[in-house]
Each structure stands twice: as structure tokens, then as C-alpha cells.
Amino acid sequence: MDAIRCNQLLDVAEQLIDNQGVVSFRFAQIAKGAGCSTNTLYKYFQSKEDVLVCLFLRNTTSSQIPIFIKENPDLNIHELSVLAILFTFESVKRSPIFNILRLVSINSMFWQLASSEKVEILKCRVNLFWSRIKRPLEDAVAKGELQATQLEIDDLSQALYFFLAGATSSYQSRLMDEQYFVVEDDIGYRHISRLMNHYQWREPITREMMQNLSCRIRNFLEQGHCSIRSCNTCLKIGKLSDCRNG
């Protein structure tokens, strides 16, 4: 029952953000919208910051990628190496609120105001996503599909992460003119290919492969998987052991 009530409160908060934006909605509005007392609201969340962190956590791609991999056991090491990047792109395109929550939640001026419990889970989830980028590259080296030193793996992981952060932020802001940034999948594929193929893969990372993988990701997201966006799932993924094990 606690998990059900918590999800109801988060659903209301997400609707408030959709209607009013992250800045404008008030903490007390969540209780009113959910038809409960403020005491009930405080039972689950200490502040507005807690709510926004939890909304981000239950929307993270780290919650969904393991299930996608389980449902697609035929993924090869090349596909796994770009999965976290492409999965995030597709998630942002489908749910603009996800990127807004990401930008707010990982801002140090913001997350430091959340409760210590929520901060611990947030740190774990951020590092878990980082491992979703780095671990497949290490596996590719182990399998002989990629020739790279540990330093080169670190460099490529950071390059992919920085590209992802910049591209999703630019896409979401809608401020840049098309002459500077054009929202087309082919451009994203080209940039990812250049980053990846700068290193020595036995077979190159191709646009066709990424295009097919993106299609599979879209089909997966269109199926809903509502059970993924739950407090129980979030808490399970939020364990520190998950961070260490990737």
C-alpha cells in the first residue's frame, strides 16, 4: 500500500509539472491533487526536492535497460556498446519531462536539498548509468572486438557521455537555430559512429545497426512497461550493490 500511495503522489506531481513546470508547482499541491493530507505527503517526501529526485529516478533509463536486454537476448556487443546512448535519446524524444527532471535533479545546488536517503539512491543511479556506457566497452575488449587500453576506454566513455548530455540538452531547449543543431537521427548516428570508430573495432559501428537498434527500442517503449516506473523497482535498482556490480 505504501508503494501504491507513493506512486499516486508521484503521478500527481508529474502532472503538475506537465501543466505548470518544475519551478511553478508547489509541494502542497501534490497532497491536494492526490486527495490526501499534507501529513501523508510528508510520510514519503520531506520536500519538493525529494519529489523531483524520485520522479527522475523512476523515469531513468537504467531502470529499463536491463529489462530490454532480457527481452532481446540476441543483442551483440556492438549493439550493447551504444545501447545506453540510443535508449536515452529515444526516452527523451518520447518524454520531454524526463530530460527536464534529469537536468534539475543532477544539479548539485538542487540535489543537496533532498533527503540523505534520496541522495544516496540518486548517486547510485547516476553511477549505474555510467557503468551502462563503460561496461560494454570493457566487455568488447575482453571479447577481442575492440582494441583499447583502459585509458582509451575511459576516454571513449566520457566522450559518449558528454555527447549525450550536450545533444539531449540542446534538443530539449529548442533554443538553437537549425544551422547550428538539427534534430535528426542520422546526425546523431554519424557523431556516435565517429566517436566509436576512432578506436580499433574488429567491425565498425554502423548507422544501419544503430537505426535497427533504435527501432527495437521504440517498439519496447511503446509497449508501456508501466510496472517499471514504480517505487519498488526504483528501490531495488537503487541498492549500492547494483552500482558496484553494474
Automatic annotation (TrEMBL):
Pfam family, one: TetR_N
Organism this protein belongs to: Shewanella fidelis
Segments of the chain annotated as binding DNA: 26-45
Superkingdom per UniProt: Bacteria
GO terms for MF: DNA binding
Gene3D superfamilies xrefs: Tetracycline Repressor, domain 2
Listed name of the protein: TetR/AcrR family transcriptional regulator
HTH tetR-type domain boundaries: 3-63
Keyword terms: DNA-binding
